[in-house]
Design brief:
InterPro entries: OpdG (IPR022085). The protein is an all-alpha fold. It has a domain at 129-282. The protein has helices spanning 11-26, 68-81, 87-111, 130-143, 156-173, 204-216, 224-235, 245-260, 266-282. The radius of gyration is 39 Å and the shape is elongated.
């Protein structure tokens, strides 16, 4: 690593910097009013003799707890106050001290041993990414709440509902993120809060179920997701409310109902029957 370049602070600019640096230390409160500290009779016109006009207050530079680093720069200030060094000389010494400290810190960093390690940023397929699945669940709830526009055929809500399910079903079946909590499969079960009563809602009810069925089909229609769903239902009974062989059989019963009830469109009945047959091949 390149060392800090030493840029000497000199001339009138250095004197001005040092003058104000010293005045900072002279501002220690000793109980007297501010006007006790006199100012140069000619203002800042003659910075070289500015120290002559500084009142001799105790700067209180040194403390019994000072370490070597504290003393290294406090001595420079003290030399200026006692006129053992001019402002330009004090500025040059401060500049040298700052550059030296910077270079030493670079050397310490470059000499530190390297300890290699592996850091897992995104442990796919583990409970530690459940918070990501919760984001998808919130997204699902924003689309598919009761009486939402999901039940309007061809609406943006309906399309987004289907696309969301297609995306999270792939994430889940690839063991990247378990998004089962946001699955639309649960929406086609009568116990779900968004399940529509088609007897009470003869118009909107079937349309809502059709929209949820199209979304839920993304977990059954492709090749990989239905196998994942079946494995979850077969092996995790009782641990997740949506999975279990009881619900697996309920899914098939609902598909049989959708496939035979003429209150649903012919397209919906065909889709339901196709999905039921695919589930039968799994178990």
């Amino acid at each position: 690593m390149a060392q800090a370049e030493k840029t000497p602070i000199c001339g009138q600019h250095a004197q001005i910097q040092t003058f104000w640096f010293i005045n900072y230390y002279l501002a220690a409160d000793d109980g007297r009013p501010d006007d006790v500290v006199s100012t140069p009779a000619r203002g800042a016109q003659d910075i070289g003799t500015a120290v002559d006009y500084i009142a001799t207050l105790d700067p209180r530079l040194f403390d019994e707890d000072d370490n070597a680093e504290d003393l290294s720069y406090k001595n420079i200030v003290d030399f200026l106050l006692t006129r053992e060094a001019s402002p330009a000389q004090a500025a040059a010494r401060i500049d040298e001290w700052v550059v030296g400290e910077t270079n030493r810190s670079y050397e310490l960093e470059s000499n530190e041993p390297y300890f290699g390690r592996k850091l897992t940023l995104w442990p796919f397929g583990t409970p530690s990414v459940e918070y990501l699945a919760q984001n998808f669940q919130r997204e699902a709830e924003e689309f598919a709440y009761p009486f939402s526009e999901v039940e309007t055929p061809g609406s943006e809500f309906q399309l987004r509902w289907k696309n969301l399910q297609g995306f999270i079903s792939r994430l889940t079946s690839l063991d990247l993120i378990d998004c089962g909590m946001a699955s639309a499969l649960e929406y086609i079960l009568p116990a779900h809060h968004a399940y529509s009563d088609i007897d009470k809602r003869p118009q909107g009810g079937p349309k809502r179920i059709e929209a949820d069925l199209i979304a839920a089909a993304q977990w059954i229609e492709p090749d990989q997701p239905p196998q994942w769903v079946y494995n979850q239902c077969r092996t995790t009974a009782g641990t997740r409310k949506i999975w279990g062989m009881h619900n697996w059989n309920l899914f098939k019963e609902e598909l049989s109902f959708f496939g035979t009830d003429e209150r649903f469109s012919q397209e919906t009945r065909r889709l339901a029957e196709s999905l039921r047959q695919k589930m039968e091949t799994q178990g």
